[in-house]
């Protein structure tokens, strides 16, 4: 997952330092732009629509808090980056996801970005199906997945299973190589037809039409068309068996 980010700080050296730390320690951050004032930051935010803003507090003109007040409301995550610890309590009243003191410690940056990443994943996971393409309808025979070069279209019936690994999902199909996608598994569990796809584990979503066998031994597992054996979580076993009746 790439996190679209803006840096707002009136100190040139501070922004240079943040760029370096981001490049070295948090490759999931994509810097869309920088601003050297709160006023410039407002314009940049409206233009770029970031996921995350690293925001200094004390700046020439009006400060970071004033900038957020002028927006009235915002839908991006905020990490305050400042040399002053006394603003921490006020910062969290703005629902900042983190508060980093200068000079920035790489571990603090990594921790803050991980918090942002988890919140963005949860936001995507909680997104109503109406806000996405609803592949549960029979009118859709393919699903589109983003790739480096554009999009790849996969026949839904060809999908054997999907496996989660953090914020990524690997899609296994009957005829092609596995495809890695930067989206949470919950996203696909919601948009795909629940009469065809069932989540049998926190990390596994399977195509029921690609199940060859269910075995009760070893706690319960399924054997798929590609002969893979996937363990069924004890909390998911009842739901899975109800689909076979």
Notes on the structure:
The protein has 245 residues and is α/β, with parallel strands linked by helices. The protein folds into two domains: 3-125, 3-Layer(aba) Sandwich (Rossmann fold); 131-243, LytTr DNA-binding domain (OB fold (Dihydrolipoamide Acetyltransferase, E2P)), CATH 2.40.50. 30% of the residues lie in helices and 30% in strands. The protein has seven helices and 15 strands. The chain has a five-stranded parallel beta sheet with strand order 2-1-3-4-5. A five-stranded antiparallel beta sheet has the order 10-9-8-12-11. A three-stranded antiparallel beta sheet has the order 13-14-15, with no helix packed on it. Helix 4 links the parallel strand 4 and strand 5. Helix 2 crosses helix 3 (64-71). Mean pLDDT is 86; it is low at 129-139.
CA distance, first residue to last residue: 39 Å
Task: Note the run of SSEs as H and E.
Answer: EHEHEHEHEHEEEEEHEEEEEH
CATH second-level architecture of the largest domain: 3-Layer(aba) Sandwich
Structural class, by secondary structure, is alpha/beta
Mean pLDDT equals 86
């Amino acid at each position: 997952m790439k996190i679209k980010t803006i840096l707002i700080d009136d100190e040139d050296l501070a922004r240079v330092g943040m760029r370096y730390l981001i490049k070295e320690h948090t490759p999931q951050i994509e810097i869309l732009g920088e601003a050297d004032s709160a006023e410039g930051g407002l314009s940049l935010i409206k233009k770029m629509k970031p996921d995350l803003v690293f925001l200094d507090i004390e700046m020439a003109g009006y400060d970071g808090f004033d900038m957020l007040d002028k927006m009235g409301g915002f839908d991006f995550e905020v990490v305050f980056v400042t040399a002053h610890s006394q603003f921490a309590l006020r910062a969290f009243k703005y629902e900042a996801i983190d508060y980093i003191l200068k000079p920035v410690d790489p571990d603090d940056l990594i921790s803050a970005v991980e918090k942002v990443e988890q919140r963005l994943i949860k936001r995507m996971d909680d997104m109503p199906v109406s806000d996405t393409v609803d592949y549960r309808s029979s009118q859709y025979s393919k699903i589109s997945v983003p790739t480096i070069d554009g999009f790849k279209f996969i026949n839904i019936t060809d999908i054997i299973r999907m496996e989660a690994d953090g914020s990524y999902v690997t899609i296994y199909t009957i005829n092609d190589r596995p495809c890695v996608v930067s989206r949470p598994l919950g996203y696909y569990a919601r948009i795909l037809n629940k009469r065809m796809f069932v989540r049998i584990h926190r990390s596994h979503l399977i195509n029921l039409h690609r199940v060859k066998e269910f075995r009760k031994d070893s706690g319960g597992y399924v054997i798929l068309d590609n002969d893979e054996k996937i363990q069924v979580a004890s909390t998911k076993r009842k739901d899975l068996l109800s689909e076979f009746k």
